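Predict both folds.
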Amino acid sequence: MKIGNIDLGCRPLFLAPMEDVTDASFRYICKKFGADMMYTEFVSSDALVRDVPGAYRKLEIYDYERPIGIQIYGHLPDAMVDSAVRVEKADPDVIDINFGCPVKKIAGRGAGSGMMREPDKMVEITRRVVEAVHKPVTVKTRLGWDNDSKIIVELAERLQDAGISALTIHGRTRAQMYKGEADWSLIGAVKNNPRMHIPIIGNGDIRTPQDAANAFERYGVDGIMIGRASFGHPWIFKEIRHFLDTGEELPPMSVAERVALAKDHLAKNIEVKGERRGVFEMRRHLSCYFKGLENFKETRLKLVTLTDVNEIYKTLDYIEQKWLD
């Protein structure tokens, strides 16, 4: 599969852009586990054109992450074009447009999947962004606004005609948010539309290697994007790749391996953000690496409240000793 001139190989696995999750340290971990292409946290076009420092921090990428995309969102065409030009200066491999985020504060004001109610405007923004930059432009979107307006098959053609290099489709409507099951049949309908020639990446409910294999084999997608299932479980990329290549499942990660991973992730987060912020923002990840351990509640609470990095390392050592596999 190729996006522009970027060769991603056969059946590539993508890390979805996720706010407060896919920062530099989490991407570092996912890359080590075999994510073929990753995306930064999505960035507000309005914040970029207002020169908000926090928005520009999200544009910081590293060569070892490549190929990597930066995703922007917004509802104003001029701001989207302006922000795309600014993003291009950060030198990502791909500029992605977020037409899929369903959260109220974004979709409610017409950005993200809120754009599904204005497909003409969505296509206009896409065309103008494609014309304004030299990098490949991709789009991530959903099936439609609600069950009565699943417009993705026709919309995909129009987005392709606007010049995008690949399309990622989450198999739910905005109204569904993340509830119910993802409908992969419509993703397959887009992929199998004879008019479509750009790569189609499927997203939604890929939680196991078997889910990924089924998506490739049954619906013919070119790539798979993994979002929520990677949180607390970034080794899912390694598990899926092994299953796709061999048909066999890897053994579960041991507690010792998960402790080593947590330490690696923490160290990287501190390196990138400094100790105070690095420790604070790791709390959302640390306890998730140990889901399923019996009688873990007290230790979990400790992990998410400690502020001293040495105490965190001591607690991780304690976990390894107490919950020996």
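Second protein follows, with its predicted structure tokens after the sequence.
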Amino acid sequence: MSGRVFNYSAGPATLPVSVLEKVQGELLNFHNTGMSVMEMSHRSKEFKGIIIEAEQLLRELMGIPDRYKVFFIQGGASLQFSMVPLNLLPRNETATYIHTGTWSKKAMQEASKQGTVQVIKSPTANSIPHVTQQDIHQHSHYVHITHNNTIEGTRYSELPETGSIPIVSDMSSSILSERIHVADYGLIYAGAQKNLGPAGVTIVIADEGLIGKQSEDCPTMLAYQTYSSSDSLYNTPPTFSIYVVKLMLQWMKEQGGISTIADANYEKASLFYKYIDESSLYHNRVDSNSRSFMNIPFTTDSEELDTLFIKKAAETGLVNLKGHRSVGGMRASFYNAMPIDGVTSLIDFMKEFEGTVRREAHA
């Protein structure tokens, strides 16, 4: 297939062409150094300039208060499932996990190796529970949420009421996609490969009051204190991924910042949900107040039609629409870099496919 496709993958995900072209233009010779970012020392002044600018841009775009530290860590969100309890949960004490899907389950499993996990479960896979302070164990050290569920297609439209207990949020698929107040959270973590750049680096934003509380047997590389005291340069970080994250943050700023991006994401999701809700062939079963703006699962009337839909869509350059293996069907991911044309093109194809199905049914 010649030319670029519309890539609806849940991650690694599509990146803006302008960012890719910037990478391409600097690939062999970054800022007249005569070398690629992939080749330069992480101790060099050039790379230190990159990581410092990346943090400054992130702070500016998200309005991160001064008391919060920003880390660039390897291992993805999956490593954070272990790092969070190792740093915030004393051995055999309690943390609360709100269970809303596959990724929260994995996080709970890791936390249970460190202490006691109080589980608050979503009533259905299609909704986010309303949680008040009375629902939470009074001695819980933190409340963990998965802000946006990529597989189930759900998101938090309101945060749990936790009182003075800090909220820890996995924002891998929603960071920088909507307006939030960082001060509402004790710690935020996010894999970059959805909204922030390529795979390989995870962003952690932590209230400094939560740093330095790791268990005595916590490995050095799993302690937030290690990254805080070394400015994320204790060992060789994922330099190239951090560089692309910096370019993505520059791109977001050029678009008008989170306010503009959030409005665009709302428009994309609203357009798509409106079409699905009006269609007689496609279905999205997520409760309306829990619907994700980033990941929208949907099905037709049969598994056979789902398979045919995915095949025909790929033939027209609409790729990676297959739903997660645990739920089937289709899934369209509309991250920050997905242009509105990617949504309208998908809707146009869906209309055409629906028309063909209806005509053949009446033939």
